[in-house]
Amino acid sequence: MSFNLALLDANEKNKIELDKQASFLIWKMKQAKGGPEEITKHLTTLTSEQDKEWFQQSVDKYKRVMGVM
């Protein structure tokens, strides 16, 4: 099954982008190419509390999935 992401509303597109960013930052931590300070730095750039919450949930999810503490 395929999905056309261009048809999603702006809020859903933003959620997907935040999820991708969280995944990348956790991957960098796993590869020892970045640290937890990058996550903190990224959180400070987000203005919406909803975006911060969604990003943090994604970070927690990918830490669990990738086995990063």
TrEMBL record:
GO biological process: DNA replication
GO molecular function terms noted in the UniProt entry: DNA binding; DNA-directed DNA polymerase activity
Cited InterPro entries: DUF3283, PolIII_theta_sf
UniProt name for this protein: DUF3283 domain-containing protein
Organism in which the protein naturally occurs: Vibrio diazotrophicus
Highest classification ranks of the organism: Bacteria, Pseudomonadati, Pseudomonadota, Gammaproteobacteria, Vibrionales
